[in-house]
Amino acid sequence: MGLRERKKAKTMASIQMHALRLFREMGYNSTTVEQIAEAAEISPSTFFRYFSTKEDVIITDNYDPILIEAFEKQPPDLSPLQAIQAAMLSGVEGMSDQELIAMRERNQLIMSVPELRAALLNNMMRTMEMITGMVAKRSGRSSDDFAVSTLAGAIIGVNISVMMHHAEHPDQKFADLLESALSSLESGLPL
């Protein structure tokens, strides 16, 4: 990552950190973009260069490129689901304690604010398309193959259930929940 990209990522993280703090202190609906910008010592127009909406400051993250890179590094003998699981777990395990706390706070906020849940759905649809492409490439199938998109949708569903559960049970380790849920998906979700 070059200097420009590192500076951009640092500014984005700062904006998100200040937004989370303000949302905790004042509530999501009572916090304005102007207040977030002021706390992050940027202008509102700079805020909108990083995030299109107030919802995006919570929904947006930089994990997709990390997931793609980790997925592509997985051994070819792993199934697409096993490769996704290994990639997701390596990404979560590579997060600092501070990043994990921020993720939990974001998830708790998302689950408690209807506008954020709606924005999450849009974000998850884009992530599902990304995973569909990754799985299609790895399996040698077309990205419009129904089985491929169904697997991607199941992976997204697992992630949403893990996010919801972790938001309500912050004492449980996110990586353990994710591993358990994806392993259950791989074994056919036996009940």
TrEMBL record:
Domain of life: Bacteria
Residue range(s) of DNA binding per entry: 32-51
Stretches assigned to the HTH tetR-type domain: 9-69
GO molecular-function terms, A-Z: DNA-binding transcription factor activity; transcription cis-regulatory region binding
UniProt entry keywords in alphabetical sequence: DNA-binding, Transcription, Transcription regulation
Name assigned to this protein: TetR family transcriptional regulator
